[in-house]
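Worked example (supplementary).
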Amino acid sequence: MELNTTSPEFYVGEHLIWGNLGHTAVVVSFIASLLAFIAFYFKQQNEQSPWAKIASAALWIHTFSVFAIFAILYYLIQSHYYEFQYVWQHSSNTLPKHYMISCFWEGQEGSFLLWMFWHAVIAVFLHLKPNRLSSGALSVVMLAQVVLSSMLLGINILGLKIGSSPFSLLREVQPEILDIPILKSIGKANYLQAIKDGSGLNPLLQNYWMVIHPPTLFLGFATAIVPFSYLISSFWSKDRSYWLKQVIPWTLFSVMILGTGIIMGGFWAYESLNFGGYWAWDPVENASLMPWLLLIAAAHLVLIFKNTGQYAVLTILLVCFSFFLVLYATFLTRSGVLGNASVHSFTDLGLSGQLLIFIFMFIFMAIYSSFENKKKAVLFGISFAAIAILNITNNSIASFLSTPVINVINLLAFGVFVFWWSKELLKLYPTKKVDENIWSREFWMFIGSLVLILSAFQIIFYTSAPVFNKLFQLNFAVQKEEFYNKFQLPFAIVIALLTAIGQYYFYRNTGKKEVWSKLILPLVLSIVISLIIAYVWSIFNLNYFLLLFFSVFTIVSNITFIFTKLKGKIILSGASIAHAGFGLMLIGILASSVNKHVISYNNIGKDFIEDDNSEKAQNFNRENMLLRMYDTVRIKDYLVSYDSVFEVGPDKFFRVKWMRLKDNKIVEQFELFPNAQNNPKMGLVANPDTRHYLHKDIYTHITHESSLEEIEDFKDFKLDTVGVGQNILTRSGMRKVSILGLDNLTSEDGKLIKIVANLKIESEINKPKLMDAAMIIDVTSNEIKYENAQSDEDGILVKLTTIIPQNPKEFNIVLTTAERRPKIDYIILKAIEFPWINLLWSGTIILVIGFTLSIVFRIKELKKWKAQNPS
Amino acid sequence: MKTIHIIAIAVIGIVLAIVLSFYGDKSYYVTFEQAESMSSGFSSKDFHVVAKLNTEKPMVYDPIKDPNYFEFHAIDSVGVERKVVYKNSKPHDLERTDKIVLIGKAEKDYFLANDILKKCPSKYNKTPEQANSEN
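After joint prediction of all chains, the assembly is encoded as:
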């Protein structure tokens, strides 16, 4: 007992060396990034200074330690070293190798690491291809690395927790693990013998798309820092135009990658989650959408700025705010503030303070660097901080001012700050006062950017409800989808229109005739096409029709543009291709969401309108369909039957056959295997299976299955005394038991006597069965054991209770019967039809192709410019 | 008036519309009793009730009879218990949740939920308390 009461000096079987190595790597990466941040700053001031060498060395040390952290953590996971909390929590023995990488993004620490990894790659790239602003930019990137690696430090300074280490030991994080009963006998020092397996990776993350979606999304997030850092670097060097040229390809790249990441997330949700769609306006989804919208606006504005010198201030603000929103998104998803609001935010690791510092640090950096008069910058900073602190700390404001008022005051304050900042930026980029020419490309791009900003603002404002709750101790509930759609639909309509016509305008000035004469053909074509589509798809709602029409217009006019204006030159047509892809995506979204139908409705005789929000409609929510094994049901044009189930690892696959009939002939036949895992941690985790057609998807998933049901106890006991050849009914009268015969067996030593009644069991649902019920009598002890006849599919139990001899040849038999509900194999299935969802995916691919072409073109342009202007 | 002024007014107008409609659209987290008193009135809006599953009382889900009827009892934040009817299949990790958000309306003798948001401590982490116990 002594062994167990005190903590042992050491624990058997731990691999502390790896943990220490990993932790050292974190500390080294932290210090090296701090050093690199300072050194690159001074290097930007003076290329020749001794800081240049230090900067380079620190950058490489930092990069290698980031890679080392990554490698060590991966090694720990794949070696199943469960003494490490992260490994224990996010992996298990049975986890396939190809999903081990997903362990990195299940936990906060791992996903910070992923972000750092991409920053490090970007930094190396910038370092190897230096230009006259890259040192300053690297300094900014390194500052981000300082903050990110501090999130992994996991140390306490003066009671303040800084970061959360992925190399923490399980027994330190969860000391109660040492109190589990079994350790009483084997000793606490041997606790690892009791922890043979990890708690496992969330089965939803064990998916091919989940391997590539997070890295893509984080690459998008990571690249958003590049335009921002070039901008800051330009402030430091007072170099007003060079950064723009550097930033154009990066902004495009960032938009493309982040967009791909978001869509991949949608595709993952569609393929492997069961909320029945690809987008739900969940705060976590919104968090990645907000910076993306601003990045798109920024990507367009840098082009205007470069080509016309107009809208400099707005461009700079957008570059800054798109980066700030990346940070804000991080705060939303990781601080735990979303709490009730989101189904998939990370759990709070107590890093909210650090995350807030992260955001404000970069805001102040941007402001301080951009103000010519540093005193004013300090004043700005102090008043900004004062407002922020007032909001964060003073909860009593809400008691005498209503929240809408506070919010409006905050918005006004925000407006004042933006105005103040713009004034200062205007000093750096004085523009000639010209009235906007509405016949110029830059004007419409500017309008488009405003719409994107407004669209982002709406999402930010609505998604921030949980933040308002926290600040002002309110209890706003999560907003539902329709509140987002209400605004985003008109915004999308305007954006589609602008995407259609934008390129037909020239920079600065275009003749009225010039625009219209070129647009008339695509316009007429689009009207015809969209009317036909609207008729076929039955889209009669005005807003939906407008979106459809402008999306079609976008596609047609951009394709026309490639051939008429660009003479089919593929290298120049990146933008047009991307825009056409965007139009296609919009149509895909429109078609698949407006005409999405749950086809497993089984509301026979009920008049149901899908969009109807009335009580009546909600009361007839009958989306799930019962499929008994071997039964056939009708789902829309299909005859659907479920006939078998098999298991692969922890997953159960249900084979569901679909047949389409036309004139009583089978015209199509296929099988779907929706599967489910009864996960000990999460209950039934269903994976949909989808039949893909060119023009629609049939998406099915299991919402319940028979083996999940609790088996009830036998009831309705009934005692009967019968003779051989007679029969009895159960209490319900639904099942019949006939006694066919009675056998008497004696064991060799004569100690045991077994009496067997041969029975025939009949019920209404199944074929008759022959079964035996027996009693075994131990002659010496007089103990009796029973072997009952039990049929689950008939829901009957028959017990041979005793026998009463009448004469040597005849026995009366006492049988006890009991019943319960027959066990039926079934699945509950939900099936949804998504028409034309392929347009969304193919539009995305076209968008990416367009972006790639644009990036290639812009890089060529940049190289050409550099060759002409050697610095 | 210059074009830019028209644009500025439009932008401010839309911003205001967004802010105002946020307050128009919003719904609060309420208790069962609040939902009941408000349901009887004018509102057709859905209510959000933060509640806990009452594991003592049986849950009714009999898919053979009706795969779209699930009934259980929940206790809200002030300790009031109500029967909840959810016309859908039974959500599977319900027993594992420590908190649920019921979205729907109060009916005569039950709360009709048309959506149930689950907050499982186990979704990404074993328990948040344990993760936080470091400090």
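Two points are worth noting when inspecting this output. The longest strand of chain A covers residues 651-662. The mean pLDDT of chain A is 87.
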